[in-house]
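The data are quoted verbatim here:
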Amino acid sequence: MGKRPKIVVIGGGTGLPVVLNGLHKKNADITAIVTVADDGGSSGIIRDYVNVVPPGDIRNVMVALSDSSSTFKDIFQYRFNSNDSFLSGHAIGNLIIAALSEMKGGIGAAIQELSEMMEVKGNVFPASDEPLVLHAEFTDGTQLAGEAEITAAHKTIQRIWVETNPWSEVKKPKAIKGAVQAILEADQIILGPGSLYTSILPNLMIDDIGQAVLKTNAEIVYICNIMTQKGETIGFSDADHVRTLNRHLGKNFVDTVLVNTKIVPEDYMDFHRYDEVSKQVTHDFNGLRKMGCRVISEDFLLLRDGGAFHNGTQVVEELMNICSNPKRK
C-alpha cells in the first residue's frame, strides 16, 4: 500500500495500548476509539463525582501515542499510593482529563487540547461524549447494570447493550463526532485485544458505531484473546468470540482473526495476581472459516510477570502485512 494506511483501533482495557504503541512506530494514520462504559477503580469514582466519561483507558491510549518525554508520561501515569481518602488510587492523568473536560466544556475539546500538549500522533476519540452504563442479560433471563456487577456475577452472558445515565439529557447513546467518519474512511479496523463483553462490544453497541462498522469497506480484524476471562468468556473458543461479535451486530462482519497458537506453559500463570483469567482459549478454525473469516495463526505470546499477553511487536507486524495484503470483501 503506497499511502499511509488508515487504521482504526476499537476497544479498551490494557490490550489496546499494546497494539497502539506498536502501530505508533509504524507509518500509519491511527485513530483510537475508546470505551466509555468503565465504572471501576479511579475512572469509576471520577465519572460518578464529576460526571465525565471514565478517563483511565483514554489516559493509557494517549500515552501509547505520545511523543512527549518519558518523564512527562511517567508523571501523567503516576498513581497516588498515599492513604489520603481522596487521592489514594487516582492517576494524575485521570484528574487532568477530568479537569480539562470541565474547563473546555466537554471531553472532545479536552482530548484535543491534551493531544497537542502531549504530542499525540493520531486521533483519540471516546466512543461517546457521555458516560455510558453497560447492561447485560444472562442466559437465565436475569439482567444487571454496571461493568463491575456484570463480571462479578459469574453468569453466562446472552447479550449486552449500553444506555446513558438516567439523569442525562441525552436519551440514546451516540458516537462522538469524528469516530464514525474515521471508521467509514479506514483501510483497517482492529477489534481488541481486550475483554469481549466489557471493552470491545460496548463500543459496537452504540448504534452509529455499529452501523459504521457494518458499512465500512475496511478490513475488520479481530485479535482474539489468549486466555478466557472469568465472568465473561469461560469455556470460549476463538470461534465463540467471533460468534458473539457477529450475533450482537446481526451479521458476519469479522473478516480476519489473529489467533495465538503458542501454548502457555502449565503452572506458569499467577492466578492470584491475574484473577480475571482462567484457561487458554481453545481453537475452532473450521468454525471461524464457516463464518467467512481468514485465520492467521501464529506465536503471538508474550510471557511476563506471571501473565500471558500479546507480543505487541509480532501482532503489529502481522497487522501491517494485512494492510499490504487485504482480504477481498
